[in-house]
Amino acid sequence: MPKAKGKNRRQKYSYNLNRKRLYRSARRRAAPRIACSHIRHAWDPHKSVAQNLAEMGLAEDPNKAVPIPKKLLGMEVESDGQQPGKKIVRKPYVVNEMELEASLPEKKSNTLSRDLIDYVRYMIQNHGENYKEMARDEKNYYQDTPKQIKRKINVYKNFYPEEYKDFIASLKPEKMEVQ
User: Record's family (predicted)?
Assistant: First the structure.
């Protein structure tokens, strides 16, 4: 197999490039990536990370914010009774908005594809509980084994329990008519 062109060519080193200055300026310019929109909107780029978080009432280091008591570590040390001075929170709305967002109930976004639902319904309708027959069916395009089909049916049962019960109930009168 031939080698790629230019692969063996030696890389030239640029002597005129000051790499220290490049690295330092890149580090200085890089702002922290903030995932939470509440924090992002309240962020002041002219202040340090510690100052921004202190203004919002958030902890920079969780180990310092909630220290482990010495008794749990096995050492009993008497404290002076002095508490560290409380920091002034200038932007309490950030913490309040985050708490409000966290208290909202989580929406179930898990759904099954329409193809999988149709596939499971077809298999149950034509074969009932016979998974070996289902595996031999011509609509079993992905050549699922009986256990894989059973697992898919169980997933459908767990995601849509009411719909599954209604579907099974609608199948029973059809079977009675056949007999």
Answer: Belongs to the NOP16 family.
